[in-house]
Write a structure and sequence with these properties.
Helix content: over 70%
Shape: globular
Largest sheet: none
Strand content: under 5%
Radius of gyration: 18 Å
Order of helices and strands: HHHHHHHHHH
Number of strands: 0
Number of domains: 2
Distance between the termini: 22 Å
Length: 192
């Protein structure tokens, strides 16, 4: 959750000094994220997994706080990103996707949001719809190995669909797939 918030807040910080209302929203959001981290760390089982049912009960109050936060700061993209991440962690993927979509509408320059939207589409086997999101993530943050890896994986997993729909020919698809994996490996040589 910390990485999600940091990405979102970094994107906002690039826009320059925040107005007073957004500084207040940022402080409130940090408190909500800290509460989420506290709940998660206190709910982890010895094997590293979570009891989803118990976690949802613990998060119910936090969800209500996030709803109130979003209502009060409806133009603050970082709030939608953090809320989407929380919802995804507790298995509420449709609601998480809606929050990522809203964040993308508010600020189309957050690479993490593009990546997450690409993931949702890939999970639904909408590979043609996922590709532009992954490409946008790479364009926005070319030094992030995960985004290059996502492109390679998408092209590998949905190879026959891309070929069947004539989005790529075999040579181009192979080249782009290998380029994605090679770039990811160059950027993060110590990660599998």
């Amino acid at each position: 959750m910390k990485r999600i918030l940091l990405f979102a807040l970094a994107a906002i910080a690039l826009a320059g000094p925040l107005p007073a209302q957004e500084r207040l929203a940022e402080r409130e959001l940090r408190l909500l994220v800290d509460e989420g981290k506290r709940i998660l760390s206190g709910s982890r089982r010895a094997d590293g997994s979570y009891d989803q049912e118990a976690l949802e009960r613990k998060f119910q109050r936090l969800i209500h706080q996030f709803d109130a936060f979003i209502h009060e700061h409806d133009g603050f993209a970082a709030g939608y990103v953090a809320y989407a991440h929380l919802l995804a962690q507790i298995g509420q993927s449709p609601a998480a996707r809606a929050m990522y979509m809203k964040a993308n509408q508010l600020d189309p320059n957050i690479p993490l949001v593009k990546n997450q939207l690409g993931n949702f589409l890939a999970e639904e086997e909408d590979f043609a719809g996922a590709l532009p999101y992954f490409l946008s993530a790479v364009e926005l943050e070319p030094e992030e190995p995960l985004y290059h890896y996502q492109i390679g994986t998408l092209l590998h997993e949905f190879r026959y669909g891309f070929l069947e729909e004539k989005i790529f020919d075999r040579t181009t698809l192979d080249a782009k797939m290998l380029e994605g994996f090679a770039t990811a490996a160059q950027l993060a040589p110590n990660e599998i």
